[in-house]
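Lecture 7 notes. Example A: sequence first, then its structure tokens.
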Amino acid sequence: MVLADEAGCNLSNSTQKFEDICAEARGDWLLFMQAGSMLQPGWPQVVLAHASKGGGAASFKLAVSPDMPWWKRVFGPVTHKSPLAKGFLISKRHAQANANGKPNVENMMRGLAIKPLSVGITSA
């Protein structure tokens, strides 16, 4: 938690209203991920390039963890049930404009055009 706070992150949970999360955000862009997820190297440059172009909502591509046994990496499908498995990146302004009455991030994601970014994310 201390590391996240020092990096400028706000930690939230699924019971917190999406509008409240947006209001408490300190930055101009919001990045939502499942607990335990990790972005692959190079993600800051990809996110900065996307943000500098004024890109809309985005997500990352699912990647397989290198810690996973080789047979699962080769034969196991990369699927996850949560919409946040791929992460969710959105500008604070765009999020606030679309947050009306949305109880959580997953509901916010529905109906938005979400651009896939070129960097991977592994989920726990």
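Example B, a different protein, same format:
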Amino acid sequence: MLVKDRQKQADIVTKRLSEHYPDAKVHLDYKNAFQLLISTILAAQCRDVLVNKVMGPLYKEKYKTPQDILKAGEAKFRDDIKLINFFANKARLVIGCCKALIENFGGKVPSTMPELVSLPGVGRKSASVILGNIFGVKDVIIVDTHVIRVGGRLGLTDQTVGDKIEKEYKKLIPPDKQFRFSVELSEHGRVICDARYPKCPVCFLNDICPSAYIVMPERKKKDASKSR
């Protein structure tokens, strides 16, 4: 049965996601904060698996610190990541990020939202990835494409802009569950709620999902018969 109250809907979704995806995590490979920071910048509009493929050997053999990337220079780094979407612009951002890390933070990845978003190439989404995964911050929302899509389909938000969606989720989801909620919602988008071919018949949220009622008209008929 569809839930009309958005807060109640959010509570149900949060509970079910945590039950189904207890081991969900970021799909970028990393061994430290620096690697995750750089990979997060490179992953914008690019598949995580490709970033992992390109950067894995580079982190191991060449780029272990911000100083390593700056020493190589923008042209060399750009050439090394040329398989990644928008590699030229991203190389410029990474160089700027590495300079800022050294000049402003002693070469270390900072641990607060204001500090992180001051770095070139780092927005609130990327900062939330770092804060949640590296520093264990719980009250952050990672608004990626999956979270935007799935949240809209579930009726949790009418917004389409990342910052506005983040604000809405901040009101709906308890602070200590926000990071896990966004990671698990993103995982649901990868596993079941696909952009083009959502697997509504096997989805554990199809009984409360407005979009599933469109894809599965039999669900609407079934609920209608129950309410008589």
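Note on Example B: DSSP finds 13 helices and no strands in the chain. The mean pLDDT is 93.
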